[in-house]
Amino acid sequence: MSNQTPTIIVTGGAGYIGSHTIIELLQQTDYIIVSIDNFSNSNADTFDRIESITGKRVKNLNVDICNLEALELAFGTIKNPIGIIHFAAFKAVGDSVNMPLTYYHNNLESLINLLKISEKLQIKNFIFSSSCSVYGNVDKLPVTEDTPFSKAESPYAHTKQIGEDILINYVKSNPAFKAVLLRYFNPVGAHNSGLNGELSKDKPNNLVPFITQSAVGILPPLTVFGDDYDTRDGSCIRDYIHVSDIADAHVKAMNYVINDNQKTNTSIFNLGTGNGVTVFEAIQSFEKVSEQKLNYKVGERRAGDVIKIYANNNLAKQELGWDPKNGLDEMMLSAWKWQLNLGKQK
Ligand code: NAD
Ligand code: WQD
Fold it and tell me: Any idea which ligand is nearest the CA of 305?
């Protein structure tokens, strides 16, 4: 073992969840952190924001992870790499329906390339960003990690189902390799300082960025997609989870594999709070913390929407010692602070 401080590689480190995870890694550990991101859905300013919060500058290697040759050269510059947290992927569900090949290529080729390099360089610890979308429509709630997958509702969700299978099969072939698959429910909010948050290049379709951007007038009033579902107030139910709690789970997952605490070489954990929240409850929370009324209307149901989904998160709590700290109001307040910080800039 080298005496050099170990390095953790974060792919997609300039993106929404990757940047919050880098902040937690820098604040909670002594690892050297290197990001690999080609800015396809982000930009280099993220690293200024990370520095303003942590006081530390993180190096980013601007490489397309689908380009194996370039990726090998980039890894050649990294000293003592011991773990990879793989966020880099395309994530817009609607785009994946219109551009399935782009999604299959980017999300799967990147994973395969990273595994090839891990094998070559003997990097044994790997954390993968999966999604509750792997479950599709479920019959029984809350969702446990054993809930069987239904048919994927989109090519995006299918890339996550296939990505999980690739990892599971790879681990079987290489018992020295340890993987944690984290299935995020609905990550929302921003760093509680309001200094870092989501800044995708594409127009937001997700509820929370739509709320905050419509509140500052960049987007038209929100449409609630249906109020006639069989739920307590007629709107759909989701498990919203603060992005910094998601980030914290990655630090714990990385320590878990590095310290050999796994029962088997592949572990799978749901990351949600376990609470189902309706669209109207999310709006009420936003109105409370922002001290203003939100202009919205009720519209048609959105095609393909799951009515109700939330997590059983017991396994992540037991095995990782993870406990999400932030409630819905903290999620909304931090998202709002971030939006006010951005102003009318999208
Ligand atoms: P994001 O788009 O903000 O971040 C992804 C980053 O990866 C971007 O900075 C992008 O530039 C980079 N990237 C993409 N393809 C690349 C490539 N080929 N080479 C190099 N860099 C590349 O997305 P996010 O919300 O931070 O999501 C991170 C991960 O979590 C993704 O795998 C996503 O599918 C998964 N996930 C996200 C959510 C969510 O709601 N945000 C929910 C479940 C799972
Ligand atoms: C949340 C709720 C909408 C916008 C998506 C992906 C999923 C995962 C998480 C990556 C729903 C309602 C929304 C609006 C509304 N991502 N809504 N008006 O659909 O749960 O999941 O993000 O892995 O794969 O599909 O999130 O934020 O789009 O919607 O009423 O303008 O808000 O109907 O009930 P969703 P969302």
Answer: 2
